[in-house]
Amino acid sequence: MSNIALVKSLTKDATLLTIAEKVLNNQRITETEGTYLFDDAPIGYLGFLANYIREAKHGDRTYFNRNFHIEPTNICLYTCSFCSYSRLIKKRSEGWEYTMDDILNIVKKYDDKPVTEVHIVGGVLPQYDLEFYTTLFSKIKSHRPDLHIKALTPVEYHYIFKKAKISYEEGMKLIQESGADSMPGGGAEIFHPEIRDEIAGGKCSGEEWLDIHRIWHKLGQRSNATMLYGHIENTMHRIDHLEKLRALQDETSGFQTFIPLKFRNKGNDMSHVSESTTVEDMRMYAVSRIYLDNFDHIKAYWPMIGRDTTQTLLAFGVNDVDGTIDDTTKIYSMAGSEEQTPALSTAQLVKLIRAVGRKPIERDTLYNVINDYTDTVFEDDDKYKGYIALPVNN
Ligand code: V47
Ligand code: SF4
Questions:
Q1: Pick from 193-202, 306-315, 327-336: least confident
Q2: 151 close to ligand 1 (CB < 6 Angstrom)
Q3: Which of 55, 232, 306, 335 has a CA between 20 and 30 Å from the CA of residue 276?
Q4: Which residue, 161, 296, 261, is CA-closest to 215?
Q5: What is the tens place of the pLDDT at every residue in 154-184?
Q6: Residue 327: pLDDT band by 50, 70, 90 thresholds?
Q7: Burial, 99: exposed, middle or buried (Cβ in 10 Å; 0-12, 13-18, 19+)?
Q8: Interval between CA 79 and ligand 2 midpoint (Å)
């Protein structure tokens, strides 16, 4: 049966059929169609379309990398209501504030480990200024030139450039020269001011977030994008967010990956807001895959969304699961993610991917292939035959 015949057999809904024809013909869907997918599409149909795109782009290949995270501080002068960090500003004794030497010592702990990336992001405090970060990045680079530095978001950059009284263009150039290689996707939250003004505690606006990425891309650099979903936003806000990312990507082609971030409700000022269900998560990822036709990769950040849901999402558009992090980032464990246990080893992550019939590929930050683990034999492989789930305590 042809793909078109197959989708016709799956629904009689005229709008869904139009969307399916567009997807199968590699055409872009509209904002109205995106809204329809969020609000009205059956989940199996969404999965079919998202998986079609995923497999057309990547087959069964599923990427991960070997990285580690450093959060210079868990105290923040902004007051995002979804975040557990800002509440510590008045109780500093409960937080940490690393010095430059502390951070360099963490980097040195990985000297003999085969990691390819350090991801640096945390709270915003005055002592972490432009001078601090440019010195830090150049010290990390001179210590370990091959380690990719993925660091800071427009939230920090907006703050430190304003403090240094320089433009975004001047600032991003200095950051590039100091050795930062790429920018992670954080701080995006929801761009629409109706929601951002409510939850994002006075930090940079959606337009400023997009501007800083635009400037970074125009310097020839790459970055990621995120959306914090599943709290007080509605479909219009989600589509607005996706549309702004798609438009910027048309202009620069600088984004590598889109990462929907599921709102977690523990230990923050939004604990009264319920978390999304797994089906809502599947919907979010699938619509993102369908809507963002100009993004190569959709990533599920497993420490936040959990291992089981990550495995499910590999059939809903996701082709990347982030890293073998060995110190699950604190921002999520503080916000209630169940992933409070230490890292997944490379073997565990490989098995997690193979257990749902996908091919695990280790990549570097820029998606160059480092190792294909499809046929790698591990001692206890027999336990993982027949797509059974990965035991949590493996
Ligand atoms: O911007 C904060 C989010 C982000 C909560 O680019 C929360 O590869 C859920 O962006 N519930 C930072 N989310 C993390 C981030 C990221 C993570 C992994 C990989 C990459 C990448 C980027 O975490 C923040 C905010 O959106 N966040 N609090 C919470 N309660
Ligand atoms: Fe600060 Fe970022 Fe938390 Fe907002 S989300 S309070 S900017 S660490």
A1: 327-336
A2: no
A3: 55
A4: 161
A5: 999 999 999 999 999 999 999 999 999 999 9
A6: very low
A7: exposed
A8: 7
- Residue 256 three-state SS: strand
- In this predicted model, what pLDDT tens digit does every residue of 339-383 receive, in sequence order? 544 567 888 899 999 999 999 999 999 999 999 999 888 876 666
CB atoms under 10 Å from CB of 345, counted, come to 13
Q: Looking up tokens 């009205």, which residue turns up?
A: 40
Give the other-Cβ count within 10 Å of 51's Cβ: 17
Q: What is the DSSP letter of 322?
A: E
CA of 85 to the centre of ligand 2 (A): 6
Identify which ligand lies nearest to the alpha carbon of 153. 1
Using CA atoms, how far apart are residues 351 and 347, in angstroms rounded to an integer?
A: 6
Atom of ligand 1 nearest to the CA of 303: 18
- For residue 8, pLDDT over 50 is answered with yes
Task: Check if 204 has its Cβ closer than 6 Å to any atom of ligand 2.
Answer: no
Name all domains of the chain by residue range, CATH numbers in brackets.
Answer: 3-41 (no CATH), 59-384 (3.20.20.70)
227 lines ligand 1 (CB under 6 A): no
Alpha carbon distance 225, 185 (integer Å): 4
Which pLDDT does position 393 carry in this prediction? 44
Handedness of CA 299, 149, 116, 326 (dihedral sign): negative
Q: Taking residues 268-296, what's their average pLDDT?
A: 97
DSSP states along 282-321: HHHHHHHHHH-TT-SEEB--HHHH-HHHHHHHTTTT--EE
Model confidence at 89: pLDDT above 70 = no
Smallest-distance ligand from the CA of 186: 1
Reading the block at residue 247, the tokens are 């438009």
Alpha helices in 220-276 (DSSP H): 235-252
Rounded Cα gap, residues 202 and 73, in angstroms: 19
Best-predicted range by mean pLDDT (71-85, 91-105, 307-321): 307-321
